[in-house]
């Protein structure tokens, strides 16, 4: 489609708005008016605003006017609002998040609460100015309260440690993460572990020199349990050996896919002090699992969960995905029922983030909209059902090109929330990250400024350019010299 932006510089923002309705459409941004089908136009002339959307079968235009003393933020909001209304009328579809496109809606809500002075005022602003529907405002409110409780635990010297294991048994059809199927990358794993251990040791020395206080450890991926029990023991025992665990609140490993979980690996995690794990079925429908390329069955998920309980894990999370190809609302309800029967401490409900290469084929002029409608019913049902069972929302984030412009929400029983999830999403404190594709985020103590250090994405690059990577990590101490804790 063609997007004409005239008289303003909000190209990026208006393009993001268009992608709420056409996530896979190639968008050409122009600065002059043209004729043709599938055109969106935004126009600013002084205080006058204009937006229109034209397709083969429909046309809609909206006009508005800016207040006398407007700023760029208000101009951007009003342009987005007009364009949103045009698309909603042409497509007969209004995403429940309105014009909110950012990845941290609860954080935005918290900022509006602080700016306006109350939650009541923030709720009205979200509804009337951002066009967010009541259901999502309520979710923001609940998540905001859950996050604030966890954020308050963090201090100026606090940090978390993230360890990346970017390998999986196979690559799922919907996956958008930097991970590598074991059949192609298995030979890299032993060498990768060697270099990862070197980076962990150096990172621990940096943290010690800076007197940073470790609050949480999170090993993710990929699928960390693609490593052997011996490799897991080596990495995790090294973490405990090198870092000061005096203030540790949480030690999480994404055990991940049930087909990688064994008693030996679970015992390795337990013996290293891991106190929280994830077992992630995504669906409990064997038919859906086959469609998305998962090599395990629903029965294996149950077996892995029961094995973890037997070994003594009393804090287990399970991940589900709404909107998977081949899934239905009834099948999703069945999945959630089977998960609740296992009684996990937390459940994370993701909305499918669609890649161009894995686009779902459904009929209609706006095919993603139909998928989004079904996924929306799934996440609504999940929220209602989990909440009734005392599993409450405590963190939330969103990804680009998500079906229905929906969200990912972590639900947990009281005092079973994953602290790391909140810290990383809210950017509460510094995250020191080790491994391929990991990103270190350094937050100014007592402030909001953040700097990032990016590790190389791919394991072969991480290994071959390791010395260069370690040179980059000198930036951690440089940052804290510039922004000291005290």
Distance between the termini: 53 Å
Which CATH architecture of the largest domain would you pick? Alpha-Beta Horseshoe
Estimate the helix proportion, in percent.
Answer: 40-55%
Radius of gyration: 23 Å
Number of helices: 17
Count of beta strands: 18
Average pLDDT reading: 91
Q: Would you tell me which CATH topology of the largest domain applies?
A: pyruvate-formate lyase- activating enzyme
The geometry reads as: globular
Low-confidence runs (pLDDT<50, min 5 residues)?
A: 357-366
Put the structure in a nutshell:
The chain is of the alpha/beta class and 486 residues long.
Description:
The chain is an alpha/beta fold. The protein has three domains: 90 residues, 2-Layer Sandwich (Double Stranded RNA Binding Domain); 46 residues, no CATH class; 322 residues, tm_1862 like domain (pyruvate-formate lyase- activating enzyme), CATH 3.80.30. The strands form four sheets. A nine-stranded mixed beta sheet has the order 14-15-13-12-11-10-9-6-16, sandwiched between helices. Strands 2-1-3-4-5 form a five-stranded mixed beta sheet, with helices on one face. Helix 8 runs parallel beside helix 9. The longest helix has 22 residues. The chain is globular.
